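Sample intake sheet
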Amino acid sequence: MEIKDFLVEAIKKALQKGITDGVFAAGQLPEIMLEVPPKKEYGDFSSNVAMQSARLFHMAPRRIAEIIIANIEADWLDRSEIAGPGFINFYLQSDIIYRELKKALALKESYGNTVLEKPRKIQVEYVSANPTGPLHVGHGRGAAYGSALVNLLRAAGEKVDSEYYINDAGNQINNLAASVNARYLELLGEKVEFPENGYHGHDIIETAQRIIDKDGDKYLKLSSDERLSVFKELALKEKLAALKEDLDAFNVHFDRWFSERTLHPEAVQAACQELLDKGTAYKKDGAIWLKSTDYGDDKDRVIIRDNGVPTYLAADIAYHKDKFERGYDKMINIWGADHHGYVCRVKASMQALGYDSEKLDILLLQMVSLYRNGELFKMSKRTGQSVTLAELIEEVGCDAARYFFIMRSLDSQLDFDLDLAKSESNENPVYYIQYAHARICSIFRQAKEAGISYDLDTVDLTLLKDQSEVDLIKRILSYPDEVKTAARDYAPHRIANLLYSLASDFHSFYNKCRIIGVDAPLAQARLALSAATDYTLRHALKILGVSAPEKM
């Protein structure tokens, strides 16, 4: 266990002792939450457990806090103080941080990982953009956040599958084929009316031109329906390959690519029939309707149209039914904010099938706004439309794009400063963090040349007394708990924020504390502290999918 876990257990025992002594009323103990205070003078940890217990014990929070402090037993605790209406600030003994730092150093690259006795089986589905054109920056935010969330949950000890749902069976694919067909005919000098719901991106022209470059005009002899059938498969294959290439360049990889086509018609029909059999769907006016109002929706929803064609919802019902049948303990979907109204009906459909909809968490991704020279920037240089993910990566790089996408919570709109993302200065958080890692690598190269190394069994970490050293140690020791908290809250942005603070603490330490040229024991201790920082930096950067360069 980590020191925070020990403190939680000590508080529980103090509360239980109060119950045993008859001071507190018997009852279920509240969840004990600990936080690292924003200011050092407020201690190493703070808790509002006394205020949470006020109703349970029918006692004033400050009185509860006094009893907790009187009952708590921990030889590594220096003192506890009551603040405000009943907060308890805990101050650890000074040497505890050195013991914990040595444990961190012993774990090396695995520091930050949690090993769970019973890990959950979790599925994360994200991006899932229609394979009808290039990914844009909005997809990029979902891709960066989703892949970081997968990494984060795995670091927290969970068993995680990542999945991309390929929308390759609906009208959008028919429109893709019709759009390519129109451009194909145009490029060959044929007169054709562009389809009303067609895709106007320049990439459609490029697809049609590639077909001509490879096969010439041989498809002209086919009927319109035959040509559309051929172009549907050619275009889908090309778009999906390009999409995978963009994601690979963005350090995003999926365990499974799930084709919507595999659900039609059997799985979709089976799901709709099951709803009918359960009485949670009904027939009306030749269509089949889901009784979604029984589960909180504002109106019932059509799942099979009166012409027998399934709606998008029907396919999504079949898909999520498949997810539940795979036995996941938790399923997480990351969708665009424009799907807000769709959340209720999907959850309703799962309840209608008899599944626990609480196992399905849907996170909504807010918009991204690009800025250049302080002004909103919308247009792609190549297409005149929205900026593609590939163009963004080309301009600012994968690392900067990923970090900027992740550094804000998913439910907040993101203003992406292109100039800042490209700058090589301390104002750029990515550069600032990576430079900390490069500095550590430089320290170890210089230490090797100077013949300085440390032995974990003999290094005296208690020599690290400077405030910058103590601050850096405490930041490192807060990391494993931050991983757990971020995983619990689906919040990889917390790791991005901690990374920046860790880099800041390291730069302060580096500027104040020499390693080369001081007494050997102190040099060894500072080298060990640099190593612990490096383990933590690289672990966190790996979660975010950002590289750790050795030189800059």
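Comment: Residues 101 and 311 are 57 Å apart (CA to CA). The first strand starts at residue 34 and ends at 35.
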